[in-house]
Write a structure and sequence with these properties.
The protein is of the alpha/beta class. The protein folds into three domains: 255 residues, Carbon-nitrogen hydrolase (Nitrilase/N-carbamoyl-D-aminoacid amidohydrolase), CATH 3.60.110.10; 202 residues, HUPs (Rossmann fold); 42 residues. It is built from 16 helices and 20 strands. The strands form four sheets. It has a seven-stranded mixed sheet with strand order 5-4-3-2-1-14-15. A six-stranded mixed sheet has the order 6-7-8-9-12-13, with helices on one face. Strand 1, helix 1 and strand 2 form a beta-alpha-beta unit. Helix 5 crosses helix 6. It is elongated and about 85 Å long. The N and C termini lie far apart (62 Å).
Length: 546
């Protein structure tokens, strides 16, 4: 008898849609000879549900849906994630649980013990932890079932453990000889390899097979890569699911052989796939069918437009060129050429009349004042107004095009180039933008050569270049990585990177001062270990001492 992994893309709160997927995958697995199928963490209600689990109606609908799934999947055992009422002294109403459904009923409820509270996770806010877990028998095996973080505390793997208990170790001590884990483990660069190595360590240490089914799809800022795996007692992968798409994977628990589906290899290809999936699911789950991208002729907007076209199809993307008083003809031509290469609709709307009108209105108030960044920002905000007008008129989402380097140091304009419903590349440093663009063109040359080669510029004043205001991006990105992702102090960054200490301090000051901008930005797609957004909680009104 085989076991199946149902690697699905649930939507938070879409109980009927999630149930339909679970029932469909269960029937497909049963037809292929599986006696049991596993689905990801909170697959019934969607993950992460966050404060929705505080609503009694949400919890009740979740329970009704599980009962329906049980009734519709007789003949195959189903393990799915759900919310269950908490009976504890923690003050929490619910628990993050897994249900084993057999013969039309719930045969077992197993709740999560380890509730993460780091980075984007805040599960102690919503859930009560389980005090204990139990084994269940299936196919002659003693199954040790855990939920995502329950497997992330192996003392043989982590140099610093976050919890005092190890649920996997405890279940194996009870006699467990087959580890099952249902996960909602988000993607970031290097996460798949880390996850695989950690699970392999558990398999080798305890000499037991380890199974992990992971969610796939985008949910707000998070992208889940799937990449479900089954490992034998030696920690070798004997079955695996695809990356960044739904999949059904079957394996034999006795012979430990199974389906080996190809996964996307390499950081650049994986990041690109994550951005496409995150954009597609954000639009689909929020009800948008069309996207608008402001095309400047620069590399950031070019990459964003390519991602959008791959996510929802070129027929559903509108590129908008908005030349101003300092826009070069080359940039206008590059924007038009990109749109033609992608096959997307292109509109050219000059901001010059609006810019001059704003200047005329402000002329009496600005009398005697020198021109400065104010006039630059007026140009950016005129573009933002046009993009949002198009969004309102056509019901399309504006995809903002700023990268992580710019957002980090505040080289962006509130209510200008920051407008939009989704900041597609806001977790992508400028140096990675270039790598991803090269990857895109290695598949099909769509980004114009001039866009790749010309010095980056906002074109808001004569002969402007990013390097006028910022250090070289190679240096800027290195400082941001060490300071944002690893919290290294300026002296350590300067010493280890060989960068002038004053340059490091300048970048850090710029980053700290720009916090108020980032907290007003559109949500972005997380692809790094530490992205700007709700996984990085920094106060705005704070003094920075470097």
């Amino acid at each position: 008898m085989k076991i199946a992994l149902g690697q699905i893309d649930p939507t938070v709160g879409d109980f009927s849609g999630n149930a339909a997927r679970i029932i469909e995958f269960s029937r497909r697995a049963q037809g292929a000879g599986a006696g049991m199928i596993l689905f990801p963490e909170l697959s019934v209600c969607g993950y992460p549900s966050r404060d929705l689990v505080e609503r009694p109606s949400f919890v009740a609908r979740n329970q009704e849906t599980v009962d329906k799934i049980a009734a519709e999947t007789r003949g195959i055992a189903v393990i799915c994630g759900l919310v269950t009422p908490a009976h504890s002294d923690t003050g929490k109403r619910v628990m993050n649980s897994a249900a084993l459904l057999m013969d039309g009923r719930i045969a077992l409820i197993q709740s999560k013990m380890l509730l993460p509270t780091y980075d984007v996770f805040d599960e102690m806010r919503n859930f009560a932890p389980a005090k204990s877990q139990q084994l269940f028998s299936f196919c002659g095996k003693q199954m040790a079932l855990g939920i995502c973080e329950d497997a992330w505390n192996d003392k043989q793997f982590w140099p610093r453990r976050l919890y005092t208990v190890d649920p996997v170790d405890a279940l194996i001590r009870q006699g467990g000889n087959f580890v099952l884990n249902i996960s909602g483990s988000p993607f970031w660069i290097g996460k798949r390899e880390l996850r695989r190595d950690m699970l392999a360590s558990i398999a080798r240490q305890h000499k037991v097979p380890v199974v992990m089914v992971n969610q796939v799809g985008g949910d707000d800022s998070l992208v889940f890569d799937g990449s479900s795996i089954v490992l034998n007692r030696e920690g070798e992968i004997i079955a695996q699911g695809k990356s960044f798409e739904e999949d059904l994977v079957l394996f034999d628990p006795d012979t430990l052989t199974g389906d080996m589906h190809e996964q996307i290899a390499g950081d650049d290809a994986s990041v690109y796939a994550a951005l496409v999936l995150g954009t597609r699911d954000y639009m689909r789950k929020c009800g948008f069918k069309k996207a608008i991208v402001g095309l400047s002729g620069g590399i950031d907007s070019a990459l964003t437009a390519v991602i959008a076209a791959d996510a929802v199809g070129p027929d559903n993307v509108i590129g908008v060129g908005m030349p101003g008083p300092y826009s070069s003809q080359g940039s206008i031509d590059d924007a038009r050429k990109l749109a033609a290469n992608l096959g997307i609709r292109f509109e050219l709307l000059s901001i010059n009349p609006a810019y001059e009108a704003y200047r005329e209105i402000l002329k009496p108030v600005f009398a005697g004042q020198k021109e400065d960044v104010t006039e630059e920002n007026i140009q950016s905000r005129a573009r933002g107004m046009l993009l949002m007008a198009l969004s309102n008129k056509f019901g399309a989402i504006v995809l903002s095009t700023g990268n992580k380097s710019e957002l980090g140091v505040g080289y962006c304009t509130l209510y200008g180039d920051m407008v939009g419903g989704l900041a597609v590349i806001s977790d992508v440093p400028k140096t990675l933008v270039y790598r991803l663009s090269a990857y895109v063109n290695s598949r099909r040359a769509v980004i114009p050569k001039a866009t790749l080669e010309k010095p980056p510029s906002a074109e808001l004043r004569p002969n402007q270049k990013d390097s006028d205001s910022l250090p070289p991006y190679e240096i800027l990105d290195a400082v941001l990585e060490d300071y944002v992702e690893d919290s290294h102090p300026a002296e350590q960054i300067a010493a280890e990177r060989g960068i002038d200490i004053e340059t490091v301090k300048r970048v850090i000051r710029m980053l700290d001062r720009a916090e108020y901008k980032r907290q007003q930005a559109a949500p972005g797609i997380k692809i790094s270990p530490k992205a700007f957004g709700y996984g990085r909680r920094i106060p705005i009104a704070a003094k920075s001492e470097i």
